[in-house]
Amino acid sequence: MSPDRLDAAFSALADPTRRAILARLALGETTVNELAEPFDMSLPNISKHLKVLEGAGLITRSRDAQRRPCRIEPETLKEVSGWIEAYRKLWEERFDRLDDYLKQLQDKEESQNG
User: Fold this and answer.
1) In which order are the strands placed within the sheet that holds 69-72?
2) What is residue 111's DSSP assignment?
3) Virtual CA dihedral for 15, 45, 67, 61, nearest 10 degrees?
4) If DSSP states are collapsed to H, E and C, what string results for 19-36?
5) pLDDT digit string, tens, across residues 2-24
6) Which of 14, 58, 68, 80 is least buried, going by the fewest C-beta atoms within 10 A?
7) 103 — phi, psi (to 5°)?
8) pTM more than 0.85
9) What are residue 58's phi and psi, to 5 degrees?
10) Distances (CA, A) of 44 to 2, 64, 93
11) Secondary structure (3-state) at 83
């Protein structure tokens, strides 16, 4: 995943309204009007959020006669998750090494005091 695309995805995910929109779209395709229903904001404001999500590659919008269905783009979320997973593994390995080191220190202290 390119750094620019990753930045756009994280920026889009930083907003709770956009995360709520993604959560709704994870249940299936829906229209802009249906997405707007639970929010106390105007359709133009919802559209702004959708544009950010679309620009980040997290959703796609299409036109079906009078409907404007939106759908989640799982591949982008998979790429973001993969990036996070690499760092999660790195930190887990570091914490495991720290745990081992602390256990060695504790064992050494116990043997000296014991």
Assistant:
1) 30-31, 69-72, 59-61
2) H
3) -40
4) HHHHHHHCCCCEEHHHHH
5) 889 899 999 999 999 999 999 99
6) 14
7) -65, -40
8) no
9) -85, -20
10) 30, 20, 46
11) helix
Average model confidence (pLDDT) across the chain: 91
C-alpha distances in Å from residue 3, one per residue of 11, 71, 92, 97:
12, 24, 23, 29
Confidence of residue 113 (pLDDT cuts 50, 70, 90): confident
Are the C-beta atoms of 46 and 35 separated by less than 8 Å? yes
The whole-angstrom separation of Cα 5 and Cα 75 is 12
52 pLDDT above the threshold of 90: yes
User: What are the structural domains, with CATH classification, of the chain?
Assistant: 3-113 (1.10.10.10)
Q: Which of 76, 96, 82 is nearest to 4 (CA)?
A: 76
H or E segment to which residue 96 belongs: helix 74-113
Q: Using 50, 70 and 90 to split pLDDT, how confident is the model at 110? A: confident
Beta-bridged to residue 61, according to DSSP, are 70
